[in-house]
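Typical record is below.
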Amino acid sequence: MSVSMSNFLLILSLLAVICEEIVAHCINCGGLYFFEFTSCSAFLLSLLILFVYCTDVYETLGEEKVQRGNFWAMLAIGGFFLIASIVLAVTSSGSAAESAAYVFGFLASIAFLAEFIIECFHSRKQNIDERTENPGNPQSATENQPLNKQS
């Protein structure tokens, strides 16, 4: 994941948190509280991911571990953000702040899930490229020739 994409996800998560915090009162607050928890968690996890990519922690943990963790975090955050946005949209009282919150929630969930899909294609392409560069068992190798070669 690039730092610019991480910044974009961070901004969308922050906008969702800010819009949710502006809501003065709610009729059915369960959806708003769930959205609040999810959007704050997404913001903090995005901030953590950006921190990991911008510090020495990235090299300490190893590139593969960080990318694998980021891969599954994007799926989890995007899925929960989508569910929370749907719940807030269904239970909202129709105020402008609630509407803005779930719109930014939908945008953020789409961005998180898009990042997950991009990472899927990137890892699949990388696996295909590795297989074509280093075939496991070439036919011209001497190991594949019969021991008792008859002419």
Summary: The chain has five helices and no strands. Residues 3-128 form one domain. The mean pLDDT is 82.
